[in-house]
Design brief:
heterotetramer; A alpha+beta; B mainly beta; C alpha+beta; D alpha/beta; A: Ubiquitin-like (UB roll); FAD/NAD(P)-binding domain; 6 domains; elongated; D: eight-stranded mixed β-sheet; binds flavin-adenine dinucleotide; binds nicotinamide-adenine-dinucleotide; binds flavin mononucleotide; binds zinc ion
Chain lengths: ~1000, ~100, ~190, ~425
């Protein structure tokens, strides 16, 4: 029989549904209902992986999400999942898994050599060595990096889909054991909205592995009945396979639901693989149970050394008896439950109990069944290389600090550790709850929560271990949570009767004594031993946080679920103080690791972020535009004709616009409609220039400053009526400016009578520019386009292409230009009409690049390119735009700060390279000196940098062809026109350029006004 | 995830709001008369209180109104919400 | 020479978007007229003047919707409302509002093309909305003719519950395709 | 009194192994505070410890105490994403961060403590034309300042990170690489400085919170602490997240606000990404620690908080771009998530300064990006404290810049500074 450890009957597996799978390339069989771990154990596999540091052989420790050892690489290729706990993987047909952190194989791992040197690799050894010779560190580091890590990252894109969603409820219950189910039942009965989530595939918690009775019937009957009643409640949602991973403020929790993982890769159909829940709960009930603690004894990490409760789970839930000869090592009564179930299942069973003379009910029951009990006994060593084959035991002295007498051997293939219980207080602690150390029970239990995160802990996670009491607590918490959320009166039904066993107290023994220097692990994944903890103490790492980081205790994929408290006990002893004085480390989300893809959910690829486009987009796309990202917009960058490079296209577009007519989509500019009697007053405060004299139907350019006096946006604002303005902003600045206006209006000047409404998307804007623009426009409107009727910086309304439009004579190119605004829905119509009628004018669509070249020819700045948040209007040569008369406007006061008036500021200039064919790279810096061959690094004070730089066909060099132009900021630049400066390039070239005024084309502006 | 009570829309997720920093900072009425130090303090200097903090929020993805709140910056518990222009409520534990 | 015979066409960002197959149907409600209205209902005549034009008072309970004839009026803020009119009806209504308001401090702005409205119909609307919006749409918390501005993933939205099951979602023009894609994927994921 | 320590080396490791490591001494003592010190440093983070070390080492001032309210290195030093680089835009910043990188390069040997400084290269990505202009400007500025910078094409970026999705929503248009940038082991930095300072006689006093100052006629005379009053000739305040609180105690305010900044790690994996990659436009940065976890961070929460935690939306804002840029990490799992308190100035540059109180200097405001400066900051601050005058490199960072307007605005041109 291949599954030689499988019991003939029993367990919640479906023997009628056999499954096959492979581990490390070898095929095995299991059943529906198995986990990968239970199936491997059924097949006698004990060695699963290698530990992090020493590459020691490791097997299965637990049967749940607390597993530190049996961590495997699940599946291959695009579906591979590193670091997957075999104990939570539901078996499916065809599953493939492999050991990690070993080479060439888990059986023969070269890394095991580390184990031989383990003595030289105590905690933190790497801080003490690898320093000489210094050059070699990077070589050592590469070795260290390769030795570390565990699983292997997927190297292909994830084929699976995920989703995340928000939900709200009155009562969220984390954990579906008896406590959680009881709470759900009573909360649900009040009609409250209840969510109960459990990380396992079935509800029932510990009852799935026990023989407990409720009301005289098997406890699972109660579970079934409870689930059946819950299923009738429309407001109750039951979420199996769902881990509550994070508890954030204001009772906001995250949960990860594994929707199709259990079906195997690619078998989920169209469904998402995982669903990430973001839950806002009025009340939370934590019913997360407890995690059993290992005992820290000599050589306690061999495969086959497991948690006692896990052994019991494998027997009762999965029908697997993990060993034939089981030695239970206990410091409390719960190990006897395992002993009893194991002997009943046919194993030979021994118990070594560190307590002097245990005589409780369970002890007696076990003894009666033939379990051999060694009282006052410690395990002092184990045998077996890849699987445990036996243990050495010795008697303890009176206070349990040493072992005495002679040792004797027990042959066994499983050692089941029952070291007591740690309430699963992770979520409670994440909610900022404080813990209390219960000395008698030797456990941390919830003490007090905080007001913003109302929760109740019930059952084992509250330190309540007895099933009857667990149920009573759950039932009570459910109704009270519902009441506090506004449902029911809070009175709880009587709890059913349940199995009660009288238990004797646990004997805390954080480190089990032995003779000699044998390794005793408290942290299995990261190979941290009690000696490491003691070393940390010796080295002065007295804070628990230091010890954690020095020894890496609790820093593995299990985050120390089994190791942390035992570690504290050992530290406390080493430091000669109590566990509460040592304290815990901080519990942080997530409870168990969660896939990044699930957190992202749908927000990926096309839905990662919006692609904002204008109504003219269909035309741009069908005419080959290349797009540029500007904020979240996609804007046409240039329109290459077949075979054209970007350079070719831009030169052509630049020329065509100056010579004839160009058209560009300017719809993305921010637009704000401003109305109200105090609108003018608002503008006077926002802009540096004066606005009072602006006539109706007239436009004016303005720059906006922050209170630091630095430019942060610019644009043209038009007076539409006495108290009505239309403001434009930069594309990227639209939201910022709108927010700026609202903030001042609402918080500083609430008495100003002004309303601002964003109209960015209301208007589609086509700008036509160039000497033939007027002729073209006159073909599709009866608006009088004559210079006198519609002068430069004028605006008029009328029909264009048959739709109502506003036409602004604003120009960013220095040509006669019309910005035609129509309602967005007509934008494409307007554009297509212009293109059709423009054909005979050789109309040329151009993108943002050409716009940038043309405006640079005119010396118009781009905020954010020629300015950077450290530029005043004076710095960019716009003194003219700063009113000297206005008493106040935002930012004005900052101009007179001492640094602003000390001189030597950087100022905008033009640059013309000596060689007209060299286009200076934007960002290149200007040397402060004129040394013809300066060395790199010499110019610790550069004198400025190039902000904009282009080749243009519109300004000719000596050869009659186009040349390069640039804008730059240069210290004292305004007084340096005519000087030649040097620009050292990163490729080593030194480029000479002439400083000019920052305007290269049509200096008088005649073309614009024409 | 903080829950913030917009005085108009009620409890909403933090994600709908823009934080506005310290509240009740009035812009000097006559900036021109301010010394460099006074002006610098107005623009840049903040109480940065550890404890009870009077601050501004804006319901950016909702009704777009600014309002004020009192929050303990250690526990992150909101102690009060009030509209712009209303006087700051006195809350328990505020020593200032 | 002015050409006067333009074949004027309109487009929407949702033209050609494929509706998903599943528990919720998506459809664009095309070319609704939309007016943003600002004013102070707490002092002065604004409220009554507007009432006389609209045929009823603007809603003053936050996040509610009223209907007068073929007008639907949404509360957006304590001094801000959105009016939906039938296609093309906004121009006339803006004129009438402005004329009636005269010098009363107010703002009346055409935002018909600023927004797009997506109709969501079907029993799963709440679950679809939950896939991007943090509001609580449970029938106990959100009822017919309630509205709310919020976000759906990265998009600002105005969500309006129509009846027990159906919702309208209004979104900015340039976010409409993104929102549609998101809603459609949510519908399809739920159906899978 | 000096405290000679046995040297760390492979030999001492072997020697101690033979005695089962029973022979290692404490890396630093845990002394009770003396009644007075020549210099009291407040804040036992990397910067405070480095300051104490250089005071003792370079200025012979060994009667020094470092007072730490919690455990040393438990502030931002112990919770940062460990990115080290010096490719800052402005000359003043470049000077101080490059001073630090120069010290990083020999720090393990200097301290006899392996701080695992790993100059594996730091790549900034550009995702749009504006980004390209920004990185080119910065690269050129670095070039002028003698700081290494290489402009990379998208293809060259791909070579460094073969699985990077160049064609993502905001396509990768290029990058700038600082090869001397990289990471260091955060805890080791605090511990290494602590051990070395302790060896020179510095008292490191943990669980000692400063609650007030004794100031007479504008001169600081000592500090009040949870472990009693301690006299001080000079006081250096290096309290990162709590700089507002300490300034308030001293009677003045700073242009600083304390914001949560969160980070997280994945489960450990075999080496998969060999450089540090930062992406300002999409606000995410990533590296892989020597232990194998992906270490990931982004931008801070927008409201002030002293709770060392933030809200989950910031995590979502970071995970989204990470998956967009590196789709292979979709199935990889987040293992732990945490937050720190960052003291952020308006110009994203630190405040290293004399104060209105005589003999009291502050070195704070490093915000979201001061880990990389640790050695340089401690070095120049120690010199400033020792001489009573600000070191040349520190001088531009004085707090009066917020009055004069001489900001060193690293925020203005680039979006984030980590
Ligand atoms: C998530 C995150 C990521 C980051 N990533 C990077 C990065 O990649 N690269 C980078 O360069 N920087 C990064 N930083 C910033 C960096 O961590 C900090 O700038 C740097 O560590 C500050 O060091 P410090 O020594 O000044 O402060 P800290 O290490 O915070 O030390 C200050 C100490 O002062 C103590 N203290 C405060 N008040 C008192 C008092 N009253 N009495 C006594 N002691 C007191 C505190 O307890 C604390 O230990 C990051 C920060 C965070 C939070
Ligand atoms: N003898 C003892 O000392 C002892 C010890 C342990 C348990 N028990 C028995 O165990 C039962 C305890 O009942 P209970 O309900 O308190 O605990 P439980 O262990 O039965 O249930 C807890 C459940 O919570 C789930 N869970 C834990 N963390 C979770 C998370 N973050 N998200 C989702 N699910 C999570 C677990 O999968 C488990 O199903 C009782 O029957 C008790 O008698 C007894
Ligand atoms: C660079 C770096 C790497 C880390 N790696 C791990 C890790 O491998 N495992 C782990 O559990 N935590 C890791 N942490 C997080 C710490 O456990 C801890 O969360 C962090 O130092 C903040 O402290 P706190 O959570 O105790 O407040 C790492 C932190 C940093 C800064
Ligand atoms: Zn609101």
């Amino acid at each position: 029989m291949s599954q030689s450890y499988r019991l003939e009957s029993g367990g919640k597996i479906d023997r009628a549904k056999p499954l096959s799978f492979t581990f490390n390339g070898k095929s095995y069989g299991g059943y529906q209902g198995d986990t990968l771990a239970s199936a491997l154990i059924a097949n006698g596999v004990k060695l699963v992986g290698r530990s992090f540091k020493y590459h020691r052989p490791r097997g299965f420790l637990s049967a749940g999400s607390d597993e530190p050892n049996a961590v495997v690489q699940l599946e291959e290729g695009a579906y591979t999942d590193p670091n997957t706990r075999a104990t939570v993987v539901e078996l499916y047909d065809g599953l493939k898994a492999a050991s990690q952190n070993c080479w060439p194989s888990v059986n023969h791992d070269v890394g095991e050599i580390n184990s031989l040197f383990a003595r030289f690799l105590p905690a933190g050894f790497y801080y003490k060595t690898f320093m000489w010779p210094p050059k070699l560190w990077m070589w050592y580091e590469e070795r260290i990096r390769h030795a570390a890590g565990m699983g292997v990252s997927p190297m292909e894109s994830d084929p699976d889909k995920y989703e995340n969603l928000y939900t709200h409820c009155d009562v969220l219950i984390a954990g579906g054991g008896p406590a959680g189910l009881a709470a759900a039942l009573t909360a649900g009965r009040t009609g409250a909205r209840v969510i109960i989530a459990d990380e396992q595939d079935q509800m029932g918690g510990a009852l799935l592995s026990s023989h407990d009775e409720i009301d005289g019937k098997p406890a699972m009957v109660w579970v079934e009945e409870t689930l059946a009643e819950l299923a009738t409640m429309p407001e109750v949602r039951i979420l199996p396979r769902t881990t509550v991973t994070g508890y954030y403020d204001y009772n906001w929790l995250t949960a990860l639901e594994k929707v199709t993982d259990h079906k195997g890769p690619g078998n989920g159909g169209d469904s998402v693989r995982q669903r990430f829940w973001k839950i806002r709960a009025k009340q939370v009930v934590l019913a997360t149970g407890a995690i059993e603690r290992p005992l820290v004894f000599a050589e306690n990490d061999r495969p086959g050394i497991m948690m006692a409760s896990a052994v019991r789970t494998y027997i009762n839930r999965y029908g697997v008896l993990p060993g034939k000869e089981i030695l239970v090592f206990a410091n409390n009564d719960s190990g006897y439950l395992t002993a009893i179930d194991a002997i009943k299942a046919g194993a030979r069973v021994y118990v070594a109990d560190v307590r002097a003379n245990p005589q409780g009910d369970l002890v007696k029951q076990a003894e009666a069944l033939g379990v051999k009990i060694y009282r006052n006994t410690a395990i002092t060593g184990t045998r077996g290389r890849k699987a445990v084959t036996g243990a050495e035991v010795m008697e303890l002295n009176e206070d349990g600090t040493d072992v005495v007498g002679s040792h004797y051997s027990i042959d066994c293939d499983i050692i089941a550790m029952a070291g007591g219980w740690n309430p699963t207080v992770h979520l409670f602690s994440q909610s900022r709850g404080k813990l209390r150390w219960d000395e008698a029970a030797t456990m941390f239990v919830p003490k007090e929560g905080v007001a913003i995160n109302p929760s109740r802990s019930v059952g084992c996670c509250n330190g309540t271990m007895n099933l009857g009491a667990v149920l009573a607590e759950g039932l009570g918490a459910g109704v009270r949570a519902a009441r506090d959320a506004g449902f029911g009166d809070g009175s709880a039904p009587e709890a059913p009767t349940a199995t009660i066993v009288a238990e004797e107290p646990v004997r805390a023994m954080w480190e089990v004594p032995c003779h000699g220097h044998k390794k005793k692990f408290h942290e299995f994944q990261n190979d941290s031993t009690s000696a490491d903890l003691q070393l940390a103490t010796r080295e002065g790492m007295l804070s628990v946080e230091h010890t954690k980081r020095y020894t890496t205790t609790g820093m593995g994929t299990d985050q120390g679920k089994t190791s942390n408290v035992t570690g504290l006990g050992i530290m406390a002893a080493a430091q000669n103080r109590g566990i509460p004085a040592v304290g815990t480390t901080t519990f942080r989300p997530p409870y168990t690791p969660q896939a990044f893809g699930a957190i992202t959910g749908q927000n990926r690829r096309e839905l990662f972020e919006q692609n904002r486009t204008t109504s003219m987009q269909p035309w741009h796309e069908s005419h080959g535009a290349v797009f540029e990202d500007v904020g979240d917009w996609k804007r046409p960058w240039y329109f290459p004709k077949p075979g054209e490079s970007m350079h070719d296209a831009v030169q052509r577009e630049c020329k065509a616009t100056r010579d004839g007519v160009g058209i560009m989509d300017a719809s993305t500019l921010g637009k704000i409609d401003i109305q109200g009697p105090d609108s003018l007053q608002l503008l006077e405060m926002l802009y540096t220039n004066a606005w009072a004299k602006l006539g109706i139907g007239r436009c004016r350019y303005g720059v906006m400053l922050n209170e630091h006096g630095m430019i942060f946006d610019d644009g043209v604002t038009t007076r539409l009526g006495e108290n009505h303005f239309h403001m434009t902003t930069t594309t990227g600045g639209a939201a910022r400016v709108m927010g700026w206006l609202e903030e001042w209006l609402q918080t500083e000047w609430p008495d100003m009578q002004v309303y601002c409404t964003s109209v960015t998307e209301q208007w589609a804007v086509a700008t036509i520019s160039g000497p033939r623009a007027r002729a073209l426009l006159s073909e599709l409107t009866d608006i009088d386009l004559d210079v006198d009727s519609l002068p430069f910086m004028g605006m008029t309304e009328g029909n264009v292409a048959g739709v109502p439009a506003r036409v602004y004579r604003i120009s960013f190119t220095g040509e006669v230009a019309f910005e035609i605004n129509v309602p967005q829905a007509h934008g494409l119509h307007l554009w297509e009409t212009l293109m059709a009628l423009g054909e005979k004018y050789d109309i040329c669509p151009y993108g943002t690049e050409t716009m940038h070249v043309l405006r640079a020819e005119k010396g118009f700045i781009i905020v954010g390119q020629d300015t950077d948040g450290t530029c005043t209007p004076m710095d960019v040569g716009m003194d003219w735009i700063v009113s000297k008369k206005k008493e106040d406007f935002l930012g004005k006061r900052s101009f007179s700060r001492s640094d602003n008036i000390k001189g030597n500021r950087k100022e905008l200039v033009g640059l013309l390279t000596e060689d007209p064919k060299i286009v200076l790279p934007e960002g290149a810096h200007i040397a402060a000196e004129t040394d013809p061959k300066p060395a790199m690094g010499k110019y610790t004070k550069a004198a400025g940098h190039v902000t904009s730089s282009y080749m243009t066909p519109n300004i000719t060099g000596p050869d009659g062809e186009g040349r390069s132009i640039a804008l730059a900021v240069l210290r004292n630049g305004q007084s340096r026109h005519g000087e030649t400066i040097t620009v050292p390039l990163m490729d080593g070239r030194m480029v000479k350029a002439l400083v000019t005024e920052p305007i290269f084309f049509d200096k008088e502006g005649e073309r614009t006004r024409g | 995830m903080l829950t913030i009570k917009c005085p108009w829309c009620g409890d909403r997720d933090l994600t709908e709001f823009a934080a506005g920093g310290e509240g009740h900072i009035a812009r000097p009425l006559e900036p021109a008369t301010q010394s460099d130090a006074e002006w610098g303090d107005y623009i840049y200097t903040r109480k940065n209180t550890k404890g009870i903090h009077y601050e501004r929020w804006m319901h950016a993805q909702g009704c777009r109104r600014w309002f004020n709140a009192v929050r303990d910056t250690v526990s992150d518990e909101f102690l009060a919400f009030y509209k712009t222009g209303e006087p700051a409520p006195k809350v328990e534990g505020d020593g200032s | 020479m002015v050409n006067t015979t333009f074949d004027v066409s309109k487009i929407s960002p949702l033209d050609g978007m494929v509706p998903p197959v599943g528990g919720v149907s998506l459809r664009e409600k095309s070319y609704v007229g939309k007016i943003n209205l600002r004013g102070n209902v707490e002092s002065g005549d604004f409220g009554h003047i507007v009432e006389s034009v609209l045929g009823g008072f603007v809603p003053t309970t936050p996040n509610t919707v009223v209907h007068y004839g073929d007008l639907t009026i949404f509360w957006l803020g304590p001094d801000e409302w959105l009016i939906h009119t039938p296609e093309g009806g906004q121009g006339d209504l803006i004129d009438r509002l402005r004329a009636a308001l005269g010098d009363t401090h107010s703002a009346v702005t055409d935002v018909s093309d600023y927004f797009v409205v997506i109709e969501m119909r079907g029993t799963d609307c709440r679950d679809v909305l939950a896939r991007g919006c943090s509001l609580d749409f449970h029938p106990r918390s959100f009822v017919a003719d309630q509205c709310a501005q919020s976000h759906f993933s990265h998009a600002n939205v105005l969500i309006h519950q129509i009846n027990d099951t159906d919702f309208d979602v209004q979104v900015r023009w340039t976010y409409a395709q993104y929102l549609w894609g998101f809603l459609a994927e949510a519908v399809e994921n739920m159906a899978a | 009194m000096a405290n000679p320590k046995s040297k760390y080396s492979i030999f001492s490791l072997v020697r101690n192994a033979l005695s089962y490591h029973e022979g290692w001494e404490a890396q630093w003592r845990s002394p009770d505070p003396k009644s007075a010190y020549d210099v009291v440093i407040i804040g036992g983070g990397g910067h405070g410890l480095a300051t104490a070390y250089y005071l003792a080492k370079e200025h012979g001032i060994t009667n020094v105490a470092v007072l730490e309210k919690g455990w040393l290195g438990g502030g931002n030093t112990g919770r940062n994403t460990t990115i080290v680089r010096s490719n800052y835009l402005w000359d003043e910043s470049a000077a101080i961060y490059d001073h630090a990188v120069n010290l990083w390069e020999n720090l393990s040997q200097e301290l006899n403590y392996n701080v695992m400084f790993s100059p594996r290269g730091l790549l900034h990505l550009a995702h749009n034309v504006h980004d390209m202009q920004e990185i080119q400007r910065r690269g050129n500025s670095n070039f002028m300042n003698g700081i290494d910078a290489e402009m990379l094409t998208p293809g060259q970026c791909q070579q460094l990170v073969p699985f990077m999705n160049l064609g993502c929503r905001y396509p990768v248009m290029g990058g700038v690489l600082q090869r001397r940038g990289g990471t260091a082991r955060h805890d080791a930095v605090a511990w290494g400085y602590a051990r070395a300072a302790d060896a020179l006689g510095v008292d490191i006093i943990q669980k000692c919170e400063v609650t007030g100052f004794d100031i007479e006629n504008g001169v600081v005379r000592g500090v009040q602490t949870t472990r009693g009053n301690i006299g001080a000739g000079k006081v250096g305040v290096v309290t990162a997240g709590h700089s507002g609180v300490t300034a308030e105690m001293a009677g003045f305010r700073l242009p600083i606000e304390s914001f949560p900044l969160q980070a997280f790690v994945s489960e450990p994996m075999k080496p998969v990404i060999d450089v540090v990659v930062m992406s300002n436009t999409v606000h995410a940065y990533i590296s892989q620690s020597d232990k194998g976890e992906l270490v990931i961070g982004g931008s801070g929460d927008p409201y002030i908080s002293y709770s060392q935690r933030g809200c989950f939306d910031q995590v979502e804002h970071v995970v989204g771009p990470v998956i967009e840029l590196y789709p292979i990490f979709s199935r990889v799992r987040m293992m732990r998530q945490w937050g720190g308190i960052t003291d952020v100035t308006i110009d994203r540059s630190p405040v290293i300064t004399k104060t209105p109180v005589e003999n009291m200097m502050f070195n704070v405001g490093w915000g979201t990006g001061g880990f990389k400066a640790t050695p340089g900051s401690g070095h120049v601050f120690a010199a400033s404290l020792a001489k009573g005058e600000m070191h040349d490199i520190a001088a531009p960072f004085a707090m009066d810049r917020f009055h004069t307007g001489a900001l060193i605005d690293e925020a203005a041109a680039a979006a984030v500074a980590h």
